[in-house]
């Protein structure tokens, strides 16, 4: 597995780094407090071409690969987990399935505006009673001849409050189980579609996580994505890609926490010494660094496997499992090195710890990742 | 409007640290950046170019690695860039540097087949902080200059420049060609896009050495052309043993300090 | 260049506008006085402006031996072309050995233009001026690399030796009304066609000019103040003390205060009697601008903040409580 970055990847990374440090980092604490979606920064990222990195130029994308996109999410997440997931959800969960499964007309209609950031995308699978058991979809879509009518609701939808385009899963034939689930593109203004309550979350607080409500929502016939009854399969394939994005987010959070902590331990003195001089500090950080590098290899491996069109579900699952647990572990241990100051909002470390936790939950909990991995191993 | 931006690649002075034991600068691993004031010069130049047409060309004097900085200017709107680099230019102080740049500007005008209407520089480079090269280029080229610009607008073939002063600004106009040095703008420099970054990456950056600048007199370059000499450098040591009040109620601490100031007859 | 020995005397440029001198000129006279005494040469104030005879007299009272003035309507407001021409003409005629200029915006505009025309060396933004014992040259000390490094610069083979010096680094000397000296008037006129820039309008954006360089007491806030609104606490303290409000770069970057209030390497160098550093950690860029302060009082919640290393009096605590307490304590003292 060769994922040595070429110069172009490095250039994009430098560009994202500069943006992240100058624009994303200074806002991170504030948007965590206010829960305000960082629209201005999202628009700036759109101008830079960061909202459509892995898609061909003919659809308005930057024509780069998954690795470049993953590294972008990682870099943004070093300074703000919210901003990382905004890009990840938009790219992996909305643009990608339209690109992968959509008709040429759908791609032409939606991708250029999504890639340019004129429209923001979201993905809607989870329901109140269909979390890890996503097959239990209660949202239904009924064929009315020249259009579909959707009824039901979705919860915990990232970007929902600001999104223009939603990739929505709904049951079209209950008798078929998961093979009765289909995918639709729903636009913000469709009749009968509304955004419900904004979740007051522990972390990634400005990612506009809301409920979606469909009350006799009218969706044009041509907005069915791909084949009828293939929706669940599309969703699972989409989540494989999404998991690499979340793994990159987790990786970035861990790296950001280490970066902040390395700085802090060299400034803070106790017992007349910089706390970086204590062996406990040195060993803790060394172990965290090694673990984070290991997670990084898994994340990049999964991204490259996707780029090479190899089967990558298990690689994505391993990347997400390891990177997300590492993010929680690293942020918790870093906070411990900060001591009392780390527990205050004067320093970013407590926010990073809160942001890290979600990476073990969304787009498949760690337990789901282990199901995927053990299944691939043949342990049944 | 044809615009020349003179840019310097500098170490990121925010990243420079002093070794606490040896009191020397730690330069290793310090990233190189485009001098921040130059990024404003470049941005206002690009805006003028977008508004009025013409070409924007970036010149930078420095080592081979300064090509990276030139490329980052190309990614945010410059049309072409030239690196001015030669062993004989090394050791130049501001007088020699500005002389070389002014001669290079003439050579680039020749190569590009144009005349510059406006030469832009950052107010100063954040490594040397001299603010001399801009005015000295103007002097070598016998052009009017306006320093400390906060914004530049074009009006009937002239420019109007907001020049910073302590309590606001002066609006100053001048005919072109002219040299303007830029402090800060009411807007931030743009970021590159993935596409512009890729295009800049592919671009060749020509290097101008003395052979490419026909009019240059080598005795005015490098150490020979530099009247100033650095006698020595050292890192400032700041140590003071003051009174530090910790763990006290705010009121008690405040009263105590006022009392101490009073006793020391500092009020 | 001719013979270096033809160049004699130390000159200090006194910057004026509308007939009024900027303080830095008088500060430089005080700084140059011991150097002139050491060399045994006259110290000459050079004043260019309109209606400036009073300024020339004041310069002598502040310690100059004599003055040269260039008076004319074209010098009422600073222009690069007129001032450069006047200064170059004077230097060519009188051949001073050393020329010091205040590093104000105008001084830093004119200095390089003059040195470049004269093909001599100019050291920018100096914070120290000494005579090199070995050679008798001026040794100009200046901060570089964002204040992280100090450099000592000389101009051994060209004259005059020129330097711009940061305002606020040196203090004015005592005003001695009894001092007298010769005031030479030079007639140098610049035709309007030679002045290629036009002052269209002057806009004063702040109600009163922020004059940190000359402030005796400064109350400065840093990132720790937390918000633009919270600067009210500092303004209250400043009002109580008759102080000027300053701030660190982080505050300007955050948009809480305009750049005119910024103290430090990329802002103003200050030399107040009392400097209050509130919620300022003490980054080296900031410390570079306050080293001329007589007494530094720091308030910071982080007891390890570097500001405490330079503070004469430090309070470790929450500035939201400490600053109002200080205001109250100063108030109580007056009562």
Question: Can you walk through the features of this model?
Answer:
The complex is a heterotrimer of chains A (380), B (267) and C (335). Chain A has 380 residues and is α+β, with helices and mostly antiparallel strands. Chain A has helices at 7-34, 39-48, 66-79, 81-101, 104-115, 231-267, 279-307, 313-338, 349-358, 366-377; strands at 121-124, 140-143, 147-157, 165-171, 181-187, 193-198, 210-220, 224-225, 269-270, 273-274. Chain B has one domain (3-225): HUPs (Rossmann fold, 3-Layer(aba) Sandwich), CATH 3.40.50.620. In chain B, the strands form three sheets. In chain B, strands 11-10-9-12-8-1-6-7-13 form a nine-stranded mixed β-sheet, sandwiched between helices. In chain B, strand 9 and strand 10 (158-165) form a beta hairpin. Chain B starts with a strand and ends with a helix. By secondary structure, chain C is an alpha/beta fold. Chain C folds into two domains: 4-194, HUPs (Rossmann fold); 217-334, TPP-binding domain (Rossmann fold, 3-Layer(aba) Sandwich), CATH 3.40.50. In chain C, helix 8 (307-310) links the parallel strand 16 and strand 17 (313-316). The model of chain C has no long low-confidence stretch (mean pLDDT 92). The interface between B and C is large, with 80 and 88 residues. Strand 14 of chain B pairs antiparallel with strand 9 (149-154) of chain C.
